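Problem: given the chain below (309 residues), write out its structure.
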Amino acid sequence: MEKILKTELKTSILKAFGSSGGGYISQGQGYETDSGRVFVKINHKPQARKMFEGEMASLEAIQKTNTVRVPQPIKVIDLPGGGAMFVMEYLKMKHLNKYSSKLGEQIADLHLHNQKLGEKLRKEGSTIGKGVGRSESQYADKFGFHTATCCGYIPQVNEWQSDWPSFFTRHRLQAQLDLIEKDYGDREARELWSQLKLKIPEMFCDIEIVPALLHGDLWAGNVAEDDSGPIIFDPACFYGHSEFELAIAGMFGGFSSSFFSAYHSKIPKAPGFEKRNKLYQLFNYINHWNHFGTGYRGSTLNVMRKLLK
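Solution.
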């Protein structure tokens, strides 16, 4: 494996440093190379390349907005026995602490970036596509993303759609519940979902939703800081409703109230926010049920019942 890394990175030095660590999905290791330190994620599953390519595209998309710092993605490399490696810039990170409200502002800027691009295009009128370099973001007028991404190890369909409630219902909730049905055949989940599905459109009655570039998996384990400011990583990007991002951030702790107040000073809560927040939390509970098993069944069904009240 190290031989492949040396060849692919065109480096004469390749020296592992620090202990190898890993999340639930992949293993990780830092290496010294000729051109500085890199971090390598390793996954032996057959779908690893697809997963890492989605992550690489996500990091590039966030980078192009110039709003919040992410590790520089370098390369996805196939492993000979199946699986893949993902090489990125190594950043020495510590727990988010000092820069919590700064991150709140930057996530709001990330979410507002596409809207601002749209406003700029309308001002400039018909100059679309003239002199636009590939290093800049392109305006997205629909919900989705140009490639599949994975939330955890579950691949997500990001086909472009112009209606957010239908995109979210079909490609997020329904897709996850189809997996529950396949693995557990849970009758109660099926019955609650058949009722809830019909109520989703009315939660979006009075609001205008401009597609926002989302990190897609913004829990405390995917944010950090260094001396220069906040850093986010492990994204599963798509253009969606900015409120979607806040559900997981509020669910499992790790974000101080200063994060949320800084965010909402730039993007105030729209009417109906709390109910939609529950709907977005539902996605995360089902995703956790799919990843970690029936320990999340109770929370999933509870949220469904609350949403039906």
